[in-house]
């Protein structure tokens, strides 16, 4: 169950990062509310996953899902650049996440 919590927490991290961008410095109400609700949910689920997963594993996976997901959201929805170097960086992060998962005892 901890891995499910962690994955959902990572997905919520993508939501709050995207909504924060849309809030334009917390000047727009709806994206600001989405940001805060998603942050609370993300942190709560991360905390639950840390009951049984090691800190380094949980935190690394959480931030990695958020980083790669936010990158992809920026490319797909905001028209941000997807250069070969940026795609390679995202692929390396994904490789690191896979290795972290495979090396986790939980």
Automatic annotation (TrEMBL):
Keyword check for Transmembrane helix: yes
GO biological process: xenobiotic detoxification by transmembrane export across the plasma membrane
Cell compartments where the protein resides: Cell membrane
InterPro entries per UniProt: EmrE-like (IPR037185), Small_drug/metabolite_transptr (IPR000390), Small_multidrug_res (IPR045324)
Chief site of localization: membrane
Bilayer topology annotation: Multi-pass membrane protein
GO molecular function, one term: transmembrane transporter activity
Gene3D superfamilies: 1.10.3730.20
Keyword Transport part of the UniProt annotation: yes
Alphabetical UniProt keywords: Cell membrane, Membrane, Transmembrane, Transmembrane helix, Transport
Ranges that cross the membrane: 33-50, 57-78, 84-102
Cellular component annotations (GO), alphabetically ordered: plasma membrane
Family: Belongs to the drug/metabolite transporter (DMT) superfamily. Small multidrug resistance (SMR) (TC 2.A.7.1) family. Gdx/SugE subfamily.
Name assigned to this protein: Guanidinium exporter
């Amino acid at each position: 169950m901890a891995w499910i919590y962690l994955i959902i927490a990572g997905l919520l991290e993508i939501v709050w990062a995207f909504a924060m961008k849309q809030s334009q410095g917390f000047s727009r109400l709806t994206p600001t509310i989405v940001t805060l609700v998603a942050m609370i949910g993300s942190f709560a689920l991360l905390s639950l996953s840390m009951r049984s997963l090691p800190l380094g594993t949980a935190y690394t996976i959480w931030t990695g899902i958020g980083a790669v997901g936010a990158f992809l959201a920026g490319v797909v929805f905001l028209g941000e650049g997807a250069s070969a170097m940026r795609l390679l960086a995202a692929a390396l992060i994904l490789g690191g996440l896979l290795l972290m998962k495979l090396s986790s005892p939980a």
